[in-house]
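Reviewers asked in the last cycle whether our approach scales beyond single polypeptides. To address this, we selected a multi-component target totalling 682 residues and predicted its structure end to end. The input consisted of the following lines:
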Amino acid sequence: MIHFVLMVNKQGQTRLARYFDIPCSDSRNTTEADIVRKCLMRGEMQCSFFEFGQYKIVYRRYASLFFIMGVDSSENELGILELIHSLVETLDRQFENVCELDIMYHIDKAHFIVDEMLVNGAVIDTNKSSILDAVSAIQK
Amino acid sequence: MSQRLRELIRQVRACKTAADERDVISKESASIRSAFKDDDNPYRHRNVAKLLFMHLLGYPTHFGQMECVKLIASPKFPEKRIGYLGLMLLLDENVDVLMLVTNSLKQDLENANQYIAGLALTSLSNVGSADMMRDLSPEIERMMTCSNGYLRKKAVLCAVRLARKCPELCEGVASKISALLSDRNHGVLVSTLTLLEELLGQDTDYTRQFKQLVPSLTRLLRNMMGSGYSPEHDVSGITDPFVQVKILRCLRLLGADSTRVVDECSDLLALVATNTEATRNAGNAVLYECVQCIVGVPSESGLRVLAINILGRFLLNRDNNMRYVALNTLAKVAPQDPTSVQRHRNTIVDCLKDPDVSIRKRALELIALLANEKNVRTLVKEMLNYLGTADQEFKRSLTEKTCDMVQKFSPHKKWLLDTMLKILIMAGEMVPDHVTASLTNQIASAEELQIYAVHKFYNALVSEQPKEQLLLIGIWCVGEYGELLSESPPADDGTSKIPSDSEIIDLMQHTLIKSNSTVVAAYTLNALAKLSTRLSSEQSRI
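The resulting structure, written as structure tokens, was:
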């Protein structure tokens, strides 16, 4: 299962954080900062997965944002990469050439898109049209 | 006067220092808190939205929890929406406030508007506690078979959480799975497969019952592979890779201990392995899952060789992700099937030199698994070549693994000695203590090698800058077998000269003076004591 989804920029500022089945705790911010630091330290040529505590971290950088997912060690890493790509493409279609500012100012819409794709750490739908239909209908 | 969320964001972005930001946030926090006390506030949902933003930044937002509950109870849709979002972000299942929401959830689940019911289902799936799930399980089960696809998929994922929290209530849920597998909506399919996976992970009773589902699973996968281009589910040329991966994972769980299941799906697995396009990540993800399936079930050897060859192809890929994944899986396969993995040994050894540290670590572990009597010499040669240029962190594990391999698989003692000496010279400080101890044992027990050993160690001590471990062994050796130094060394050691007794004592003196470790000094004194009885000509100097 996917334990969390983070969108963090290169300065380490979290733009979106979604946790599944992890109790709220004060150490969340420090953990996020640690993970982002590790991602930033890795170069272009290194692979997109590493281990962090009991989670496996899968990340990919799109322009100025890192999309990070913390998953169980039994998950298919390449599948998670596809999921991240699917999420980015859906955000792109919603916001038309999405950038970091779009996510900042429309954080609720971004959350709704994540909600339509991932529920309780599992993929529920990856069909962009049905996701975007639901999100735009909710807006009315 | 409450401001809009955008204004707050703009203000925070304009702050130059952390102290400024804290000021802005605390001011806004205070105004929100006083606004909440006012029951009739029309801007409640805007305030909660601002709270969510502040929560993202890491500021405390506990005072907003009751507000979320109030918003959820509101009949207006935008307020409900923000209330549920706040619920999912600010609360978790341990918070008491959650119980208050149960009633609103129940009402919303039955609401005619599918989006409201959907919101309720999503929130329940994300933060529902065990008690709440128990209360609402009849509704969830009913919605799993309702006519609306949007709600069906959400209800199924809610049932996944139910299975996790209250496994005793899953009878009804389990019976619906076979019908859901023939659903046309891919969202429902992927959720059902997740539910299946969750149930399979829990109880062995279900495994027997679900084995009847294998034919429908294989049919589903076959249809997906054979169907033409379908634009809504296509990802880089593969039809819905997410569903394909899930089906393969379920097949792996179902077939883990059953050859009958394996027979039913082996030609399908072969089909997937050969027909899936490996040019894009989506295809590779499906191939990877297929390989894991083949490796995880008792499949026939032809299929296993196919899987290992696919992994070999991954290893040659320039993309680091592929190589990492391949090395990981090969490490799992190697204990069961070492001969097929040996074919790719050269590629694995090349991975030792990769710039990515994760790949180097995995390659090292895999090599340690592959070592045997026949290939240990070539493998260790490569590893020693690399040891010279390895970085500090990696050097330690590399040294330890090499020592292990040498000790376990060396074909004969002379080679063991030579190799250990090389390692001690190159990376002496990282050799673990137990290795040096066993080395001394081995030298002591191998009479024929003692002359050879003592000459080699003496030469090493004299010519190189010895590190502590090398010093210790060398000195011990010279001490024990000092008198053998005066005999001529074995024939293949041609160029070394026979040291005189005084030179030996010179060396000891030199070591004693230069050493800054008491252990080394102790060893040296010990050795001198032994030598004093054997090299009578030098007793006075000692």
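The first strand of chain B starts at residue 234 and ends at 235. We regard this as preliminary and will revisit it once experimental data from Aim 1 are available.
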